[in-house]
């Protein structure tokens, strides 16, 4: 006869595990001796080893009880079914790991590779994270609503950022976000911006937007999408 501690040592499990198996109805609770202690037999040890083996093999405890006394054919069929379920779980875990790897890549989980490269370029230029956040949100909305339009616009945006004059204007507009609305630099910035766009044709300006509502949402509805200085800059450029 074995005590619960001796049984646990023999089977290589914890006493807590044995008690859990009792609670789940997997291992019958033995009678107690005159001192009130449980005493286990060799048959209990055999059952516990079976339970441990099945559990360690990945068989859910809810299935263990049915398999303990199953005939060979039933056991083979059940193990095949469990193995199939495990393969599905493994495939799902691999997909989850792939998504986590993409998350470690930052923007590339949410936007196209071209947009992600553009955002990386902005960081290298010293563009504020606030502006990068605004751009990222806008691109997510646009490429979801109209991937074809977004593909055209990001190609054009990257060409524009390669132009030193446009790049300088972009950086100054980014900095102007924090200026006061009466900053004396705003009129000059508005003039330079207006003059630049007057002399440069945009391919996307003549292209019909598939979903203009999303375009407006991308431009207007994000937190931090404007500031007093930017609002005045827009008025100056349109004036």
Describe the overall structure.
The chain has 12 helices and no strands. With 239 residues, it is mainly alpha-helical. The longest helix has 33 residues. It is elongated. The model has no long low-confidence stretch (mean pLDDT 84).
What is the chain-wise order of helices and strands? HHHHHHHHHHHH
End-to-end span in angstroms?
97 Å
Global structural class = mainly alpha
Computed CA radius of gyration, to the nearest angstrom: 34 Å
> Strand count, sense and closure of the main sheet?
none
In short:
It is built from twelve helices and no strands. It has 239 residues and is mainly α.
Strand and helix map with partners:
Elements (H helix, E strand, L loop, with lengths): L3 H8 L3 H10 L17 H15 L4 H8 L3 H33 L8 H13 L3 H17 L1 H15 L2 H13 L8 H14 L13 H9 L7 H11 L1
Features:
239 residues; mainly alpha; elongated
């Amino acid at each position: 006869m074995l005590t619960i501690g001796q049984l646990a040592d023999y089977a290589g499990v914890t006493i807590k595990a044995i008690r859990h198996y009792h609670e789940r109805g997997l291992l019958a609770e033995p009678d107690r001796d005159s001192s009130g202690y449980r005493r286990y037999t060799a048959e209990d040890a055999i059952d516990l080893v079976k339970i441990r083996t099945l559990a360690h093999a990945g068989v859910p405890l809810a299935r263990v009880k049915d398999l303990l006394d199953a005939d060979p054919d039933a056991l083979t069929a059940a193990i095949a079914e469990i193995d199939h379920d495990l393969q599905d779980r493994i495939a799902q875990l691999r997909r989850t790991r792939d998504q986590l790897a993409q998350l470690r890549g930052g923007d590339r989980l949410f936007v196209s590779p071209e947009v992600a490269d553009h955002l990386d370029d902005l960081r290298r230029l010293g563009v504020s994270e606030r502006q990068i956040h605004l751009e990222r949100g806008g691109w997510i909305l646009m490429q979801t609503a109209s991937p074809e339009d977004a593909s055209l616009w990001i190609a054009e945006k990257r060409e524009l950022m390669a132009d030193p004059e446009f790049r300088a204007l972009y950086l100054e507009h980014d900095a102007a976000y924090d200026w006061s609305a009466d900053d004396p630099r705003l009129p000059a910035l508005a003039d330079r911006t207006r003059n630049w766009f007057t002399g440069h044709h945009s391919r996307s300006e003549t292209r019909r937007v598939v979903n203009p509502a999303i375009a407006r949402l991308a431009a207007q509805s994000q937190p931090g999408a404007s500031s007093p200085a930017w609002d005045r800059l827009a008025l100056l450029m349109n004036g």
